[in-house]
Sequence to fold (445 residues):
Amino acid sequence: MATQTAIDVLRSEAHLMEPGETYERLLDEIGDASIVLLGEATHGTREFYRIRAEISRRLIAEKGFDAIAVEADWPDALRVSRFVQHASSDQTADEALSGFQRFPQWMWRNHEVVELVYWLRMHNAQVAKPESRVGFFGLDLYSLRKSMDAVVRYLEKVDPGAAQRARERYSCFDHLAEEPQHYGYAASYGMRKPCEEEVVQQLVEMTAEAARHVSMESGTVPDELFYAQQNARVARNSETYYRAMFASRDESWNIRDTHMMETLAALREHLGQRKGSPARIAVWAHNSHLGDARATEMGQHGQLNLGQLVRERFPDQCFLLGFTTHTGTVTAANDWDAPAELKKVVPSRPDSVERLFHDTGLGNFLLPIRGRDSIVAALAEPRLERAIGVIYRPDTERVSHYFNTDLARQFDAVIHIDRSRAVKPLECSALWVSEEAPETYPFGV
Fold:
């Protein structure tokens, strides 16, 4: 389809961002989906956080969603979950978020997340049954040391003998658990014994204990046991991931996203058993994780992702929402472990979906895709899509931040923010300079 014709179709089918109305329309599109994947084109855009937070609040308040699961480590997110569920000694959201010390802190230690955490806590204050309170959980696998420590701490309370077995198994890592990449390098190149057998044994033991509880009259796994079992799962998959880092980028990516799927499925099952009906979960992660990889260059290269796996396992119960932006600012770093900076986002390339959306002249809009043949046809021409993670390098943007995509197959709907702003970290370095904009943004009223 010619570009001008595609622009005309998008102009007629897109819905301008309007307070209230946009979210009502989106909730209608979501329908009865019980797994709603909320993406982001960057890890540092304020509007993406704000809009996902508002969608999540409405899913919880209007559709009875049970949890938010995010691209974050399980132990750090669990501390936030305890706070919002009124089950911790933390007094503030800042304190509850203080577990997020690993780079990039700003992904979760930012002002938009603080507002969401307080909303969740206030919402849960009105829920009488603790087991019915909305939780906040992490799907990622980088927390090797923290997760192993959490397993041992749990077992010390309930079974000292099991705690000793766990300590002995996890001692295989020795001091390298603090630097898991060093462990992965040494284990991959034969400089030390891999700890695969030990982490598998520990997960098997925790899983057997959970199965024992399921076989009992109550038929449910206690929350604390489930949380510990998930930490054992993190340790097992993290060990595999760090060894795979030195074998194949595709392999390590697939291990990570498969772990996210395993954790999401386990969380859904656990929450569902507890409430006696299928659990509903909103998922926050980057577009590259939540858009169906089969519709992208990633999939062509052998990578899978969480969006693909969710569609394959729960085809009639999921909804995938992507986000795009044309230009503006973003919070990102120059290199891994470097300070967060407020960076300018280069205007999108002429051959990208972002430029196609910009050329409609509509500004900020919601574009429903699923079930709309005219939009599918308008997006059928192969185009590039931009992905900005925690590192942004405008000087090598084509190579570093763009990939080919069939957007109509990648997502069920997209929200486009034409000029976006950087999310503000709780801790700002000298390289992050504040910018101001009207509080009604991105609706412009």
